[in-house]
Amino acid sequence: MIGAIQFGVRWIEMLAIAVMVYQTTGSAFLVTFMALLRVLPMALFGAFIGAAADRFEGRTVLVVTTSVQFLASAAIALLAYSGHIETWHLAVSVFINGTVWAGDNAIRRLMIGRVVGTDRMSHAMTFDIGSSNVSRMAGPAIGGAVLAAWSIGGCFTLGALLYMLSVTAALRLSYRHQHKTQGRGFLLHDILDALRVVKSDRHLIGILAITLIFNLFAWPILSLIPVIGHDYLHLGPSGVGILASMEGVGAITGVIMALLFARPEHQVKLYTFSVPIYIAALIAFALMPHPVLAGIALVVAGFGGSGFSITQSAIVFRSVQLEMRARMLGLLTVTIGFGPLGFLQIGLLADVMGAKYAILTIGTEGIVALLLTRRFWREIT
Predict the structure, then answer these.
(1) Element counts in the chain: helices (H) and strands (E)
(2) Taking 70 as the threshold, does the pLDDT of residue 328 lie above it?
(3) Any idea what DSSP says for residue 219?
(4) How far is CA 7 from CA 3, 133, 137, in A?
(5) Residue 366 and residue 279 in contact, taking contact as beta carbons nearer than 8 Å
(6) Which of 36, 183, 259, 330 is the most buried (most CB within 10 A)?
(7) 98: nearest Cα among 44, 57, 140, 62
(8) Mind listing the pLDDT tens digit for each residue in 209-264?
(9) What gap in Å lies between CA 181 and CA 47, rounded to an integer?
(10) Do residues 363 and 277 lie in contact, with contact meaning Cβ atoms separated by under 8 Å?
């Protein structure tokens, strides 16, 4: 429930912020910069959070982090209603929520893995990603409708109310795990241990390489959906919200297909081959002249991306020993955190050559990167 709420509010607020910033400033770069700030904490803090995850009690961390998210959304809502909201307020809020998000793999999903065990982790991740994709499908559509009706203050008020449910859910958790009262030296030692494990395991190198490509060349494209919808497809806030939700429709469809037909031995193929499907579909999205066709392309992209999302944490969880799981999930978070470089690139390209050609450029780079790292695919399989 906590994961679904966090994902849902994240998409509601991302859509609202993107539309408001673009309408206010007219800068596609600032739109992508907001998305960059949401991902940047993963690169900055992900490894340290992973190393520290075993030293703190998970339920307590969830209570604190969900409370911080509630306070951040409530503060933006108050600023909006008072008429004092500015772009930098949104940037601070995005960075705070991104910092909380940086701990999701190493804290909340690690807790899921501890509860269900290694053998059922892939099924648990399917349900977790499924719930997040439902919110990802509904979030942009709801965000666009609320933004059109009650402006950005309404979006953040809704977010604050949903985060209150998340705090309540965290307080009601009865799960506890044994945690280290003392760590072996500084957290940096634990991080270096994890890096040594990766260096000696080409399987893990391959997993992190594919994750890096996805987050550098595929994921940043989503930040320009509002720009494409506004500039090329001539949609209003509600239309942009519905368009953005189509990627979630494809993602939840992919989750259902995985539940019905995917077997454990299919995980690696889902992980690797979902990425080129995702990138190709997003390139097609940028080229579509009609909202319906663009929406269909986003559905295909979401379908491809779901295979990657479902298997990502589960493959890492199963690939390392028990004592290394938190630290390795932290390194996975750092790899995801390289996404800001992709957001920075696509934002600058969009300001220079327009959103459509920016998507075509970064998507082509992603395909080339996949071809250059093909040998790592063999290592993973």
Answers:
(1) 16, 0
(2) yes
(3) G
(4) 6, 8, 10
(5) yes
(6) 330
(7) 44
(8) 888 899 899 989 988 998 999 899 999 888 888 898 898 889 888 888 877 776 76
(9) 19
(10) no
